[in-house]
Design goal:
Layout: H1 7-14, E1 19-24, H2 32-47, E2 50-54, H3 58-62, E3 66-69, H4 102-111, E4 116-121, H5 123-133, E5 139-143, H6 159-180, E6 182-188, H7 195-203, E7 208-210, H8 218-232, E8 235-240, E9 252-255, E10 263-265, H9 268-277, E11 283-288, H10 300-318, E12 324-329, E13 332-337, H11 353-360
Parallel strand pairs: 1-2, 1-4, 4-5, 5-12, 6-8, 6-11, 7-8
Antiparallel strand pairs: 2-3, 9-10, 12-13
Length: about 375
C-alpha cells in the first residue's frame, strides 16, 4: 500500500530546498572532500535535495560547467586530499581576465534553478561569495584554509593537517641539525598570519619563531641562535612566509595580476639564512616546505571538523538561513553574516594563549615588543 502524506508533511517538504550547489574555491586544502560529503549527504538524507557540483570553483560558473552529484559520488572520499569537484584560485567573477562576469554567474545560478549555493573556501572565496549575495544569490560559507586566518572563527579545517606536516618536517630536520651542528631554518605558509609557524614551531620544539605580526630584529634572532649553538650545538628557526625584518619588506615570490590574491609570498627563509650567516659562525640550511603543507590526506581531526562544518552548513540551508558563514566559537559551531568575514584577515593577537605559552618558554620571536602575560593579572610582565 502506498504511503499517505498528510497536508502538513506535504507543505513541510515543499518548503525544503530542492536543488543546492556546492563550490570549492581558492587553493586546495586537506578536508575539502570531507566537507563536500558533509554538506551533500546531510541534504540528500534530510530533504532528498539534488546536489550540483560546480566544477573548478567560480570558473565553473563563468564557463557554465557543473554536474549532478549522487550519493555514491560522495562516498569513499572522506580520506582523500584535494577536491573532487576541482578548484581555481584566479577565477574572480568580478575581475577575470580583465572582465566582470558576475552577471553571467547570476544567470547560470538562475538557470540551474538553485535554492542555494554552499561555498567552501577561505577569505578570498567567502569575500567573493559576500559580493555575490548582493546580486540575489543565496549563499552559505564553510571556512577552509590551512592558514587559519579567517575572521570570526577560532579554527578552519586544513590547519591541523598543515601543522602536523610542518611538525613532522621539523622533527626530521632536527636530526640533520644535531648531526651536523647546524642552524636549520624552516619556512612555512600562512600568508600574512603566523598561525602555522606558531603552532608547528611549538610542536616541533623550535628555538625561534618569526611571524608576520611582529617584524624581527635579526640581531636578537642571531643572539638566540648563538646561545642555543653554545649549549646544544644546533638550532631550529621556524619562519612564516609573511614575516619580515624591522624596517624591511616581505619577500615576494611572484605577482599574478589576474588573481584575487596577486601577491605570492616566499623566499624569507633564504633571506634569513643570508642575514644570519653574517652574525654567526654556524652552518645554516634553509628548507621551504611550500605546497607539501596543503596536499595529501587530512588528519582525523580535520576529517571530523570538516564533516561537522559541512553538515552544519546543510542545516542552515534547510532552515533557509542564507548569506552567512559557519564558524567555531568556544568549541561550538555557530554562524555569522558573510560581511563579518569578507575582506578581513585574522592575525595572532598578543594575548593568544599559544603565543603566551611560547613566550613563557623563552622562545625567541626576534622582538622585545612582546611580553608574557601574568597568570595572576591582565597586565603584561
Amino acid at each position: 500500500m502506498a504511503s499517505i502524506t498528510s497536508p502538513d508533511q506535504s507543505n513541510e517538504l515543499s518548503n525544503k530546498p530542492s536543488r543546492v550547489a556546492i563550490l570549492t574555491g581558492g587553493g586546495d586544502c586537506p578536508g575539502l572532500n570531507a566537507a563536500i560529503r558533509g554538506v551533500a549527504k546531510t541534504l540528500m538524507l534530510r530533504t532528498k535535495t539534488e546536489i550540483i557540483g560546480i566544477e573548478d570553483g567560480f570558473l565553473g560558473f563563468i564557463e557554465r560547467r557543473s554536474r549532478t552529484l549522487t550519493y555514491q559520488d560522495c562516498s569513499g572520499i572522506l580520506s582523500l586530499g584535494g577536491t573532487m569537484i576541482g578548484t581555481h584560485n584566479r577565477a574572480n567573477p568580478f575581475d577575470y581576465k580583465g572582465e566582470d562576469h558576475s552577471a553571467a554567474v547570476k544567470r547560470y545560478y538562475d538557470e540551474l534553478a538553485l535554492d542555494a549555493l554552499v561555498i567552501i573556501g577561505g577569505d578570498g572565496t567567502l569575500s567573493i561569495g559576500y559580493e555575490l549575495t548582493k546580486l540575489g544569490m543565496n549563499i552559505v560559507g564553510v571556512p577552509k584554509t590551512i592558514d587559519n586566518d579567517l575572521m570570526c572563527t577560532e579554527r578552519t579545517f586544513g590547519f591541523d593537517t598543515a601543522v602536523s606536516i610542518v611538525t613532522d618536517a621539523i622533527d626530521r630536520l632536527r636530526t640533520t641539525g644535531q648531526s651536523h651542528k647546524r642552524i636549520m631554518i624552516v619556512e612555512t605558509m600562512g600568508r600574512n598570519a603566523g598561525w602555522i609557524a606558531l603552532h608547528a614551531g611549538i610542536a616541533g620544539g623550535a628555538d625561534s619563531i618569526l611571524i608576520p605580526e611582529h617584524p624581527y630584529d635579526i640581531k636578537l634572532v642571531a643572539d638566540a641562535c648563538n646561545k642555543r649553538m653554545g649549549t646544544h650545538h644546533f638550532s631550529i628557526v621556524v619562519v612564516a612566509e609573511g614575516a619580515k625584518p624591522i624596517d624591511g619588506e616581505v619577500c615576494t615570490r611572484e605577482t599574478i595580476k589576474d588573481s584575487p590574491e596577486p601577491t605570492r609570498l616566499g623566499g624569507i627563509g633564504d633571506q634569513l639564512k643570508q642575514q644570519l650567516e653574517q652574525l654567526t659562525d654556524a652552518e645554516i640550511r634553509s628548507t621551504t616546505l611550500g605546497h607539501i603543507q596543503r596536499g595529501g590526506s587530512p588528519t582525523s581531526f580535520d576529517r571530523i571538523f570538516a564533516t561537522n562544518l559541512g553538515s552544519y552548513a546543510a542545516e542552515l540551508v534547510i532552515n533557509k538561513q542564507y548569506n552567512c558563514a559557519v564558524i567555531q566559537r568556544g568549541n561550538q559551531l555557530s554562524e555569522v553574516s558573510l560581511d563579518c568575514v569578507a575582506h578581513k584577515t585574522r592575525n595572532i593577537p598578543n594575548d593568544d594563549p599559544t603565543l603566551q605559552t611560547a613566550l613563557s618558554m623563552g622562545i625567541c620571536f626576534g622582538t622585545k615588543a612582546l611580553f608574557r602575560r601574568s597568570a595572576k593579572s591582565s597586565e603584561y610582565e
